[in-house]
Amino acid sequence: MTPGHGSTVDGVLRRSARRTPARVAVEYADRSWTYEELDEAVSRAASVLRAEDLAPGDRVGAYGHNSDAYLIAFLACARAGLVHVPVNQNLTGEDLTYIVDQSGSSLVLADPDLAGRLPESVRTLPLRDADDSLLARLESAPVYDGPEPRSEDLVQLLYTSGTTALPKGAMMTHRALVHEYLSAITALDLSAGDRPVHSLPLYHSAQMHVFLLPYLAAGATNIILDAPDGDRILDLIEADRADSLFAPPTVWIGLSNRPDFTTRDLGGLRKAYYGASIMPVPVLERLREQLPKLAFYNCFGQSEIGPLATVLAPDEHKGRMDSCGRPVLFVDARVVDEDGKDVPDGTPGEIVYRSPQLCEGYWDKPDETADAFRDGWFHSGDLAVRDAHGYFTIVDRVKDVINSGGVLVASRQVEDALYTHDAVAEVAVIGLPDERWIEAVTAVVVAREEVAEAELIAHAREKLAHFKAPKRVLFVNELPRNASGKILKRELRDRFA
Fold it and tell me: Which pLDDT score is estimated for 253?
């Protein structure tokens, strides 16, 4: 058997525990764990899991809210050679059953308030808040002394968000994620002295693999919140307990729209990370104006690459506010046409990747794997433009580009134009079936104040070619999105078609 050389997800924590055993690693609610305590808890949790008649390679579902127990369970799966399957805690019914069944999970670790949603046939173990929970059993469990996983072993099935089709389980190895952690640390300037707060769902790859695990590798003290609670986040910043925050554009928009955002003392916030979906340029400009000393980083990628692929650093924003930056340390990227050939700089095409961070394919989906991995490159489904300096700008998802009268319109450009109107709080632009235009450019708007459809269309026409301006504006109270903040345009298209 080839030795794994320690390039494993759980090895990241083990090294930090040996380096700074007494430093606080994680705070959650009224509990805190030093690095040494967290490492021991992971080893004991690994013993608990293996005692559940699980063998290396078995899949273990994780269906819980943010907590220290959720993190310990993931690392315990990694140490015991099990394959962790994070499940969106908002899923119910057929969507929930699909992921549990498709992954072949032998056991699901579930928070008690969620366990009742699972089919009765599914074997469960409470994560916390129960006498027989994983967290409660740590004290009496032995320290795990079983075989170590190898770097090439699977450690997680990372299901795509399923905005255009049924979710697919990206098969992530230890080696892929460890490479991604190093890419994140170097590109995002993560350090042991940072005080990050983690509020997005830990089942989602961005919060877990771009921030929490890389920060554990760096040796920082991490605060885990149940959810992105604006009051709690701003309180932590004002109390000088947090100076680093990652949030999707929807959360940043919500924070910037708060009446107290400009009156609270937020000078202690040093690093602001945004990603998971495209940040509207007008919103970013407003945030940078309100907090001029704050360093903003744009993080872009997708589940299949761990998920970080490109970063736009703070000193790179000037003149390219809509860019997602350049590829991170272990990622090679190109922009190609439908035949897989490079397109000239400045020309839209599909962005493709080659990287040790990439998944091994999709779990039990050979056709989808073959379609995504062609000619030695992973085809992302994102439409992008590369400039002469190597910076990428994401134009749209390939499937979200609107064909209006035979002319392709990128929804992002229309959204940015509408965001410059004071009455627009949020907007998503989609194409709806139309007899004349094939697809009519349609804006779905959450309004901050009363505004007429005609006014918004006229505003867009002042900033765009007329064929790009929306033909219709629909008003809604809120936009549908997944737990990572990504707007579900497929759901909007279905609703209004």
Answer: 83
Q: Name residue, tokens 């390939």.
A: 398
The answer to whether the Cα torsion of 209, 212, 216, 219 is positive or negative is positive
Specify whether the backbone of 464 is left (phi greater than 0), alpha (psi in -120 to 50) or beta: beta
> Average pLDDT over the chain, rounded to whole?
92
Kindly report the length of the chain: 497
Which amino acid is located at 297 in the chain?
Y
Summarize pLDDT for 36-75 with one digit per residue, the tens. 999 999 999 999 999 999 999 999 999 999 999 999 999 9
Q: Give the list of residues 6+ apart from residue 395 with CB closer than 8 angstroms, or none.
A: 348, 383, 384, 385, 401, 410, 412, 413
Task: Render the burial of 147-168: b for 16+ CB within 10 Å, e for the rest.
Answer: ebbbbebbbbbbbbbbbeeebb
Count CB neighbours of 397 within 10 A.
18
Q: Which two tokens stand for residue 440?
A: 């009519």
Q: What is the predicted pLDDT for the residue at 483?
A: 63
What region does 438 belong to: left with phi over 0, alpha with psi -120 to 50, or beta? left
Helix 68-79, helix 35-50: angle, nearest 10: 60
Mean pLDDT of the region 69-98:
95
Give the three-state DSSP class for 214.
helix
Report the candidate in 271, 151, 262, 258 with the shortest Cα–Cα distance to residue 210. Answer: 271
SS3 label, residue 467? coil
Task: Find the distance separating the first CA and the last CA of the chain, reported in whole Å.
Answer: 56
Torsion of CA 408, 412, 413, 419, to 10 degrees: 150
Return the axis-axis angle of helices 68-79 and 9-19, rounded to nearest 10°. Answer: 110
User: At 284, which helix (H) or strand (E)?
Assistant: helix 281-290
For 356, counting Cβ atoms within 10 Å of its Cβ (0-12 exposed, 13-18 middle, 19+ buried), the class is middle
On whether the CB atoms of residues 307 and 206 are closer than 8 A, the answer is yes
pLDDT band at 138 (very low <50, low <70, confident <90, very high): very high
Give the Cβ contact number of residue 415 at 10 Å. Answer: 24
Tens-place pLDDT, residues 304-315: 999 999 999 999
Predicted local confidence at residue 90, as pLDDT: 86
Alpha carbon separation from 412 to 54, 280, 322, 388 (Å, rounded): 46, 8, 10, 22
At 5-35, the pLDDT tens digits run 668 999 999 999 999 999 999 999 999 999 9
Please report the pLDDT score of residue 465 as a whole number: 77
The first and second tokens of residue 338, run together, are: 């439908």
Question: Model's pTM, two decimal places?
Answer: 0.85
How far apart are the C-alpha atoms of 482 and 321, rounded to whole Å?
25
Asked if residue 1 has pLDDT above 60, the reply is no
